[in-house]
Amino acid sequence: MTDDNNDDWKPQTALVHGGALRSHFGETSEALYLTQGFLYDSAEAAEARFKGEEPGFIYSRYANPTVDMFEKRMCALEGAEDARATASGMAAVSAALLCSLKAGDHVVAARALFGSCRWVVETLMPRYGIETTLVDGASLEAWESAVRTNTKLFFLESPTNPTLEVCDIAAIAQLADSIGARLVVDNVFATPLLQKPLELGAHVVVYSATKHIDGQGRCLGGVVLSDKDWIDEHLHDYFRHTGPSLSPFNAWTLLKGLETLPLRVRQQMESASRVADYLAEHPKVPRVIYPGRSDHPQAGIVARQMKGGSTLVCFDVEGGKQAAYAVENALKIIGISNNLGDAKSLITHPATTTHKNLSEEAQAEAGIKPGTLRLSLGLEDTGDLLADLDRALSRV
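^ that's the sequence the OP posted. Answer follows.
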């Protein structure tokens, strides 16, 4: 028994009820189908299912009832026609980028990317004859200048990791349309609650579900969302034959995470806003970047395309790496971790962790300085977090 999604449902309702698939037992919580394969009533039924003439599951590497519920619930939230869930965020990124490309194609990507995303664009793709160009993602002119006759794909994060730069998704999508290319947006920092890339014209959206969607440090996961035609034509066979599938257990965990996503993101965003304002007034913090503030470099774009700031704050500490380390090491509540979107507040030093493989020049181009810290706000009391930061900054 399947509960039909209602187009009139608000996100909070869709995240609790969307895509539900109930067995004959009528369970209240989604069932966890820990199975590799499925049985057929007859040899003829197996043939029909493999031909696509009969609906049903074939093998959990292709699709699984629990994973299917997660995909449908993400579609309901994102406003997408179809989705494929993957084993991790990077599996989602790699699949979304590589499934439609071939040797001789050209990709334009914003240079401000997560370290592993940049490796895929800058190192992996050229090994297979795919040409790539990195540009200043905040400059529409840079995107326009990078276009070639063989440009097939645009790729960006917005807000970016870790400096929270914001790209004009609608304008870049329009440019992609004008040349027959596809725009892939990594929307993990905004979450589907604060920004809807598909509504802005993007063609494909990817998430690391490890972050806010799970949001409690429990498991890995990712998801690619787009229109059904693109997934059927490009992603389906790539996904089926390369096997980056999400485990049913992780899908079940992510379903539970989605139920509380609006509550968590709202609290985390409120804390991030207050922390950003506090840091902006601190004498030992020369730079604060937060999309919810009027001094954000792309504040106008933020106002047009986002429903709120973010759950993250990027800031610099006077004194470079040594001072940044001193702050991290003095924190008592906020943990040092390269993860984000967790119920626990987490901080990391991008230059030596998430973006350590970039050259000093590349780090500088991405706005990463020796004293830059990325702070992901959790669900702790905001006053306690401010006191923790105040105490740590006093050590600098």
